[in-house]
From TrEMBL:
One of its GO terms (cellular component) is lysosomal membrane. InterPro entries: ATPase_V1-cplx_csu, Vac_ATP_synth_c_sf. Belongs to the V-ATPase C subunit family. It comes from the Eukaryota. Subunit of the V1 complex of vacuolar(H+)-ATPase (V-ATPase), a multisubunit enzyme composed of a peripheral complex (V1) that hydrolyzes ATP and a membrane integral complex (V0) that translocates protons. V-ATPase is responsible for acidifying and maintaining the pH of intracellular compartments and in some cell types, is targeted to the plasma membrane, where it is responsible for acidifying the extracellular environment. Subunit C is necessary for the assembly of the catalytic sector of the enzyme and is likely to have a specific function in its catalytic activity. It comes from Poecilia latipinna. One of its GO terms (molecular function) is proton-transporting ATPase activity, rotational mechanism. Pfam families: V-ATPase_C. This is V-type proton ATPase subunit C. Gene3D superfamilies: 3.30.70.100, subunit c (vma5p) of the yeast v-atpase, domain 2, Vacuolar atp synthase subunit c, domain 1. Keywords: Acetylation, Hydrogen ion transport, Ion transport, Transport. V-ATPase is a heteromultimeric enzyme made up of two complexes: the ATP-hydrolytic V1 complex and the proton translocation V0 complex. The V1 complex consists of three catalytic AB heterodimers that form a heterohexamer, three peripheral stalks each consisting of EG heterodimers, one central rotor including subunits D and F, and the regulatory subunits C and H. The proton translocation complex V0 consists of the proton transport subunit a, a ring of proteolipid subunits c9c'', rotary subunit d, subunits e and f, and two accessory subunits. The lineage of its organism: Eukaryota, Metazoa, Chordata, Craniata, Vertebrata. PANTHER family: V-TYPE PROTON ATPASE SUBUNIT C, V-TYPE PROTON ATPASE SUBUNIT C 1.
């Protein structure tokens, strides 16, 4: 399971007792979940007014930071072209997998100094993650343009003979060049009509050079044939060819243009390879930064909500539960029985009820403080 429930309950005589009670109820008797203490340092409480305002701001920030974490993860999947093992290798936090990071969470004192006010810490996170979001947009746009241009060129060099580029198929020797009177044309003939072509091409217009046709290329459906004729017969030949289900391609042999196309393809391919490594490294580093910031926001929310619900002095135990998938419903019931005395109204409240003054549309409400952390951040299951 990649889902965690981050909860808190007030300290009994000591916070250790709160922890022991949870362990007995959820793990030792019936193995409903794997539990870890979630360490939150002594943060500055500030005033009640500030805490109430901060509670709403942190909810919005949580949603924003989660969306950025998911965007970076999804883009990593795009860049690595959904090579799931590779994606998983790169989606780490502080060098460890996400489940390990969350279950062993330690507050980063250097990045988020606890001497600062809660509001300042949330602003540090907000600035940091907004920067990552902006950088991601710029980098993704540049790489996607490059990738798109390369795909367009590759598409031109593949597909049906009726539409694909012919530059890598034809050679200079296939054409009569620099003649005032003669011109070589390229015609796509369905495989089933080869015999008809050989029989009729010389008679499709008056001035076709006899025995001048040559097959240059073949794909699954058609062949590409060259034919030489007088320039003044071109329109008539084109018209008659169409009537016979032969398609004349508009193509003029231009060595410089073809060379430029090949060089452009090579340049784009080289640029893509050059950008790939640094882009994956940037995504890896900034995924880690954004994910770490997100878990710190969860810690801030638990702290603020616990103080608002359970009062001062600060006395609560934050706990991280990793539910066993089959027992999630049972675990909810056990937690409810354990903590229902904290808030008698919570029994009847669920997220679908619209109660004035309680913003429950985004968050389930329980008698204990609860936030969900889901470490599966991709559409495909890594």
């Amino acid at each position: 399971m990649t889902e965690f429930w981050l909860i808190s309950a007030p300290g009994e005589k000591t916070c250790q007792q709160t922890w022991e009670k949870l362990m007995v109820a959820t793990t030792r008797i019936n193995n409903l979940s794997t539990n870890h203490k979630f360490n939150i340092p002594d943060l500055k409480v500030g005033t009640l007014d500030v805490l109430v305002g901060l509670s709403d701001e942190l909810a919005k920030l949580d949603t924003f930071v989660e969306s950025v974490v998911k965007k970076v993860a999804q883009y990593m999947g795009d860049v690595l072209e959904d090579n799931k093992d590779k994606v998983q290798e790169n989606l780490l936090a502080n060098g460890v997998d996400l489940v390990t990071y969350v279950s062993r969470f330690q507050w980063d004192m250097a990045k988020y100094p606890i001497k600062q006010s809660l509001k300042n810490i949330s602003e540090i996170v907000s600035k940091q993650v907004t920067q990552i979001d902006n950088d991601l947009k710029a980098r993704a746009s540049a790489y996607n343009n490059l990738k798109g241009n390369l795909q367009n060129l590759e598409r031109k060099n593949a597909g049906s003979l009726l539409t694909r580029s012919l530059a890598d198929i034809v050679k200079k020797d296939d054409f009569v060049l620099d003649s005032e009177y003669l011109v070589t044309m390229l015609v796509v003939v369905p495989k089933t009509n080869y015999l008809d072509w050989q029989k009729t091409y010389e008679t499709l217009a008056e001035m076709v050079v006899p025995r001048s046709t040559k097959q240059l290329f073949e794909d699954n459906d058609s062949g590409l044939f060259s034919v030489t004729l007088f320039r003044k017969a071109v329109d008539d030949f084109r018209h008659k060819a169409r009537e016979n289900k032969f398609t004349v391609r508009d193509f003029q042999y231009n060595e410089e243009e073809m060379k430029a196309d090949k060089e452009e393809m090579t340049r784009l391919s080289t640029d893509k390879k050059k950008q790939f490594g640094p882009l994956v490294r940037w995504l890896k580093v900034n995924f880690s930064e954004a994910f770490i910031a997100w878990i710190h926001i969860k810690a801030l929310r638990v702290f603020v909500e616990s103080v608002l619900r359970y009062g001062l002095p600060v006395n609560f135990q934050a706990m991280l539960l990793q539910p066993n998938k089959k027992n999630m419903k049972k675990l909810r019931e056990v937690l409810y029985d354990l903590y229902k005395h904290l808030d008698s109204s919570a029994a009847v409240i669920d997220a679908s009820m619209d109660i004035p003054g309680l913003n429950l549309s985004q968050q389930e409400y329980y008698p204990y403080v609860y936030y969900k952390i889901d470490c599966n951040l991709l559409d495909f299951k890594v």
